[in-house]
Design goal:
CATH class of the largest domain: Alpha Beta
Number of strands: 15
Distance between the termini: 18 Å
Order of helices and strands: EEEHEEEEHEHEHEHEHEHEHHEHE
Structural class: alpha/beta
CATH superfamily of the largest domain: Medium-chain alcohol dehydrogenases, catalytic domain
Largest sheet: 7 strands, mixed
Number of helices: 10
Strand content: 25-35%
Number of domains: 2
Helix content: 25-40%
Bound molecules: NADPH dihydro-nicotinamide-adenine-dinucleotide phosphate
CATH topology of the largest domain: Quinone Oxidoreductase, Chain A, domain 1
């Protein structure tokens, strides 16, 4: 066993430190599948893990990186053999299990999904946790019975990773998409290119508002939380629903029961980390079928593994756009 390159988070006085260096393969954690990582991505949670701004890392040393695509090197799991292309998102990888910003990962086979047919490893990671979460949100809205004929769909944090994929998926599914962004001037063309029909300034939703407002959208995918989510709920049409997955503005939710009891609005919680396998595979199959790969490419840039560390602060500050694929090896 040798060493491989990895980003490593160590415990340091008063917090944690981050470095790029060599990691001993013998120190990989238990798992029945060892994967040569070819691609990872940058997600908001990776920014939190690398900077320590929230206590995402639960074990030290930690290799951050919550998702990867790669090729199986060795496997004791019945479903996987050497040479198989696989994808992993969630399950605490990069939080309490050594993660994806590395040339190698050892994980439980039950956490993996086979690389979806029709996607390359790079494309699967252009989708990544953010895009797969956007699909879980769309599936939740559909399960609620909502269709494009019910009215517009709002996406908050629209220029970010979840937001960009959500705009593309909703537009492709026929929705009239309203994209809410703090970067309306710079990113309006980008968002229209993804399929947004309208672009709104997120300032409209960012400050405390009334418990009920004029009904504006039948559905929403919210990556922002806090006051924004409260205002999104307040302006959701009767019997509409909001799929909530994020906290870019904050963890709090300063709302009232009014949208729920006076308009029958539903708040649908989305947790991508421990999604059971059947729903996970359904989401990936839908992504491979429904997401336009040209649109995906237009929201994606690549950085080499050695450079992802410097983007940690960027994503937390809301300065990254769309999706960032991390190329490994
Ligand atoms: P990004 O940073 O790529 O996107 C977040 C976007 O939110 C930003 O691009 C920005 O968009 C907007 N934003 C940032 N800061 C603020 C703020 N203070 N107030 C209002 N809007 C803000 O992150 P991701 O897309 O990777 O993740 C989005 C959220 O979803 C995160 O909170 C993440 O933790 C969560 N998430 C949750 C998952 C789950 O399983 N529940 C899975 C994946 C992500 P703009 O400039 O367009 O306004």
């Amino acid at each position: 066993m040798g060493t491989f390159k990895a980003w490593i988070v160590d415990k340091a006085e008063g917090g944690q430190s981050l470095r790029f260096g060599d990691f001993d393969e013998a120190d990989l954690m238990d798992g029945d599948v060892t994967v040569r990582v070819t691609h990872s991505t940058l997600n908001y949670k990776d920014g939190l893990a690398m900077t320590g701004k929230s206590p995402v890392v639960r074990r030290f040393p930690m290799i951050p990186g919550i998702d990867f695509a790669g090729i199986v090197e060795t496997s004791d799991h019945p479903e996987y053999k050497a040479g198989d292309a696989v994808v992993l998102t969630g399950w605490g990888v990069g939080e309490n299990h050594l993660g994806a910003y590395a040339e190698k990962a050892r994980v439980k086979g039950e956490w993996l999904v086979p690389l979806p047919a029709g996607l390359s490893q790079a494309q699967a990671m252009a989708v990544g946790t953010a895009g797969y979460t956007a699909m879980l949100c769309l599936m939740a809205l559909e399960r609620h019975g909502l269709t494009p004929s019910d009215g517009p769909a709002l996406v908050t944090g629209a220029s970010g990773g979840v937001g960009s994929v959500a705009v593309a998926l909703l537009a492709r599914a026929g929705w009239h998409v309203v994209a809410s962004t703090g970067r309306a001037e710079e990113e309006a063309d980008y968002l229209r290119g993804l399929g947004a029909a309208e672009v709104m300034d997120r300032a409209e939703l960012g400050k405390p508002g009334k418990p009920l407002a004029k009904e504006r959208w039948a559905a929403a995918i919210d990556a922002v939380g806090s006051t924004t989510l409260a205002n999104v709920l307040a302006a959701t049409k009767a019997d509409g629903a909001v799929a909530a997955c994020g906290l870019a503005q904050g963890m709090d939710l300063p709302t009232s029961v009014a949208p729920f009891i006076l308009r029958g609005v539903s708040l649908l919680g989305i947790n991508s980390v421990t999604t059971p396998q059947p729903k996970r595979r359904e989401a990936w199959a839908r992504i491979a079928r429904d997401l336009d790969l040209g649109t995906l490419a237009s929201m994606t840039r690549e950085v080499p593994l050695a450079e992802v560390g410097r983007l940690a602060e960027e994503i937390l500050a809301g300065r990254t756009r769309g999706r960032t694929v991390v190329t490994v090896g």
